[in-house]
Amino acid sequence: MNFQDFSNRIANIDYDKLQQEALICRGDILTMTTLAASGHPGGSMSTIDALLTVYHIANINKFNLHDLSRDRVIVSHGHISPAVYSSLARIGILPQEEYIAYFRKAGSMYEGHIERSIPGVEWTTGNLGQGLSAACGMAVAGRVSGHEFDIFVFMGDGEHEKGQITEARRFASKYNLSNITVIVDYNCLQISGDIAEVMPAMNIAESYKSDGWEVISIDGHNFKDITGALLKAKSCPKPVCIIANTKMGSGVSFMEHVASYHGAPLSEELYYKAMEELKLEPKLEYYKEMRKGFMWAAPHIRAENPKMNIDTGNRILYAADVKTDNRSAFGAALLDLVTLNKKEGQTDIIVFDCDLAGSVKTNGVEKKYPENFFQSGIAEHHTAVCAGAASVNGVISFFADFGMFGVDEVYNQHRLNEINSTNLKVVTTHVGIDVGEDGKTHMCIDYIGLLRNIFGFNIICPADPNEVDVVIRHVAKESGNFHVAMGRSKVPVITKEDGSIFFDENYEFKYGEVSTVRQGKDNVILAYGATLYRACAVHDILKAEGIECAVINVPTPAYLSDNAFENISAYKNIFIYEDHILSTGLFSTLANLSLRKKQMLNIIPYAIEEFPVSGSADEVYDMLGLSPAKVAEKILKELGR
To answer: Cα 254–257–258 angle (5° rounding)?
Structure first.
């Protein structure tokens, strides 16, 4: 909203009414945490005054929760869920009473930490330090798509020990995200005690100032101080941090400044004492009865995302004699997609990079469409969350990185992205031993094993530039989180046995399906990514020895459809050839599926069983016994030749 409307909202606040509502919220907080015998009442009570004030001022109501121009409130310290639920009920977004009765009840949507599936909650939090990154993602999505709104980020003081916040602060300053206002609940206590003793060197205000933010210090329990600071923040041309000096457990004398109430509820005896001090009617027995009647009715509800309108364009086809790297094909497809969707009525595509644009080939977008390109520097934790949050705020979001940094280093961030039902497209290059000379520190050989643990995260490993082009266009239009993994080196175009390109204009990618690249009886090699063209070379070696061995491309090594399994299980001997750790790649997928289907298969894997050494890709493959010649030798031996 514009400054005048914002100012008018503040001018119309009834401070006496707001004070009374905050008192009611304190009673709610104590009732629900005592009822559940768990929760975080202390921080909820220190934050409630500022939180409730912002909810009353911000452009948020039950009618505009899916409007891309609504204001956003992000609560980074998600353990203060009692304060969030009570505030949302006060402004009419949540129904009265049930959030108290069913707080932390198994099957209830009112979980211990806030979930994006709750109306009015913008981001699922709990793992500290990620809220500001999410705000940055929302801000840049709004900027690119042309939607104006304010973002208020509530944060705990202790969570500022997290390094990701520094990454996010600098990003916000670099891109002058002046519509972001941070409110720090500065009660000076965390689980282990005084923040000055836990981490003495931390100076929150100076940290924000040094990163280019405006900083305002206020009494976090004085409503006029709060509104005055918000008004200053609204008029400031820079992002603003409000340090709200508060008291842990504010409002109840024996709870104030007591660190144990950070994560411990009151006993029933102390609950009644607190409610008497607050001059509120205790309703614990009433809610106990209501809680008994709760019936779990449905599984976890996923948050609703904005509808996307994507033009995927026409395929770029690479001739059989072309030898290029898959990352260049990704860069070409990405640039084409961004160009196509700059038109009116299409969903914008934005790209996030971590100081690797030239290597991951996002530099084409950087040069031609700088307004759609966001350079985060070496700040992967922030970027993973920032890109994820952008993806549920009206744009398609691509995050490109090296495998080690875009997957291994940010596993928790991607886990939270999936919990937040994001629509993120993670594209990593330099996966597997194909990285070669960079050595074991850069050889991402466990990406399938990691991401298969995140429910719903789709993993695709295209084998050549033509398959890359198909896959990138596919993931752009499909909802959900995707990881597209590819190596570093130049690779030959995969051809049919007659020499024409295999992934031609008639090829259609379907998640979980496989395709036969070389024909053969009894024996089959399953491969994907960097091993597919090598598997074709193995096929040729075996053929010269009189052995028929099919080659099947498995581009989704973490998931096989029933049809794909039936296709594969028809072979007598199944050889798996992969540039990945043995125990968690395609071998694991097929072995587990075989057991679940109670169908015994003869599976012989050739994969990575130790951290590789540094050297050229072909040398490293050979040293690990994974060169085409050595794999062919092993297969011949397995077949008794």
So the answer is: 70
Residues 85-123, buried b or exposed e (16+ Cβ, 10 A)?
bbbbbbbebbeeebbbbbbbbeebbbbbbbbbbbebbbb
Residues 539 and 156: their CA atoms lie apart, in Å, by 59
Enclosing H/E stretch for 284: helix 284-292
Note the CATH number of domain 323-492. Answer: 3.40.50.970
Domain layout of the chain by residue ranges: 3-292, 323-492, 515-638
Summarize the confidence of residues 341-363 as an average pLDDT. Answer: 97
CA distances from 576 to 280, 488, 552, 626 (A): 68, 22, 10, 11
72's tokens = 């956003």
**Architecture of the CATH domain 3-292:** 3-Layer(aba) Sandwich (3.40)
* 33 touches 238 (CB < 8 A): no
Collapsing DSSP to helix, strand or coil, 594 comes out as helix
180 φ, ψ to 5°?
-100, 125
**606-621 pLDDT tens trace:** 999 999 999 999 999 9
Is residue 481 within 8 Å of residue 414, measured between CB atoms? yes
CB 397 within 8 A of CB 415: no
Q: In whole angstroms, give the CA distance from residue 475 to residue 318.
A: 20
pLDDT category, 641, cuts 50, 70, 90?
confident
Cα–Cα distance measured from residue 350 to residue 259, given in angstroms and rounded to the nearest whole number: 43
